Amino acid sequence: MAKIFITGITGFLGSNIADFLSKEGHHIVATYREKSSKNLCLNYYDKVHWVLQDENNDWVNTIINTSPDVIIHSAWMGVSHNERDDWECQFQNINFIKKILFVAKHSKASRFICLGSQAEYGPFDGVINEEYPLNPVEAYGCVKIICSELVKQYCTYHKIDWYWLRLFSFFGSGESENWLIPSLVKKIILSDYMDLTLGEQKYAYLYVGDLGLAINSIILKHGQPGIYNISGKMLVTLKNLVEGIRNKINPSFKLNFGKLPYRLNQSMHMQGDSSKFIKEFDEFEASDFESSMLKTIECLKEKFKAQVNEGI
């Protein structure tokens, strides 16, 4: 099994990746900040070698001395909607990834795995592969592209296998309350209606647990370095998704479709072609969509009902 250093372990994607990899028997080293909540890591907390990431300590050399073989960089500053076009916020990610690449070089890591985004492509409609033109419309997507090139050039120069995963739509436990599915469940628990667009958008959602499976395949199979799309195959309209969730919780909850306008540059069909990854590393979409969604809904219901009971 591999020794893995992972950034962003206390976040939505990082915590779920670490959960999967810890169950596979890998040894995990992770950074955290004093203000970070580790609530999403409770299932495997004792299996992680925790390193405090603080400006006043030598955390970079501490990580290097653990000699990780694989580095997974899932941390990213500025993922909320109001920060995605904040260039100063996004620029911080360039400085941080430089430190993680320094760790990769001096720890003699063999593989560097980094999480990119569909935002690098900008607005699009349909199923797209890795050759689709890059046309980001926010600082978030622009800086992701800058960092992908840094990873490619640095790792190629230092003979480190690199993998840049462009992620599409995900769902699962630990997602921020500001995103669609958690915000919908919260509304259903706490109020009696929700205003939405017409809901004609089509997304190919992937259960977040399957991201851990995809990354584990990279760790085990030593495939060709490069850029890979990671996307679900099951296409669902936003309206059907929202109605399905509503009906599982409270069928009388009112959904006001058409009350909100579509945002500027709204894509109506967002789906990645993951065939390049599947050809290199095999299939990764292993979870049943309905059962995974039901599990996610139940977790969210418990969370928001607990908040109500605590008066939050």
Q: What's this, in brief?
A:
By secondary structure, this protein is of the alpha/beta class.
Provide structural commentary.
There is one protein chain. This protein is of the alpha/beta class. It is 39% helix and 21% strand. It has helices spanning 12-23, 59-65, 87-106, 139-157, 180-190, 209-221, 238-249, 275-281, 289-310; strands at residues 3-7, 27-32, 48-52, 70-73, 111-117, 126-128, 161-167, 170-171, 193-196, 202-204, 206-207, 226-230, 235-237, 254-257, 269-272. The strands form 4 sheets. The protein has a 7-stranded parallel sheet, with helices on both faces. A 4-stranded mixed sheet has the order 6-15-10-13. The protein is globular and about 60 Å long. The termini are far apart. The mean pLDDT is 96.
What layout of secondary structure does this protein have?
Layout: E1 3-7, H1 12-23, E2 27-32, E3 48-52, H2 59-65, E4 70-73, H3 87-106, E5 111-117, E6 126-128, H4 139-157, E7 161-167, E8 170-171, H5 180-190, E9 193-196, E10 202-204, E11 206-207, H6 209-221, E12 226-230, E13 235-237, H7 238-249, E14 254-257, E15 269-272, H8 275-281, H9 289-310
Parallel strand pairs: 1-2, 1-4, 2-3, 4-5, 5-7, 6-15, 7-12, 8-11, 9-14, 10-15
Antiparallel strand pairs: 10-13
Helix pairs in contact: 1-6, 2-3, 3-4, 5-7, 5-9
Count of alpha/pi helices: 9
In terms of DSSP E residues, the strand content is 15-25%
Silhouette: globular
| Spatial sequence of strands, sheet with the most strands | 3-2-1-4-5-7-12
Radius of gyration: 20 Å
The quaternary structure here is single chain
Notable characteristics:
312 residues; alpha/beta; 7-stranded parallel beta sheet; 4-stranded mixed beta sheet; 9 helices; 21% strand
